[in-house]
Amino acid sequence: MTDVAMENQTVDKKPNKFAMLISCLLAFPLAAVLLVHPAAMLDDNGHYSHSALMYIMIGISGGFIHGVGFVPRHWIWKWLFSPFLSWPLMIWGYYTWFFS
Fold this sequence. Notes:
Elements: H1 2-7, H2 17-36, H3 50-68, H4 75-80, H5 83-99
Transmembrane segments: 18-40, 52-72, 79-97
InterPro entries: Cyd_oper_YbgE
Keywords: Membrane, Transmembrane, Transmembrane helix
């Protein structure tokens, strides 16, 4: 059974080290701000937008996962934690941090 599963796997390409570095550089400061000074993510009314913070944390998770070089096997996790989704979510986090 495992032999059949192993035959269907394709050969992985080499990871893009520059993209991995960008993912880490975007994820580390946002994670630090959320851990050390979460009040920096408050909106103008002094409230948290919990739905926005959930998406931003998914982006941070994707940044860390991609940044360390981990490649999920299932297509849903590959898509969810890819830089194509995590980078815009982290940029949204920086926008929330600096302009809200």
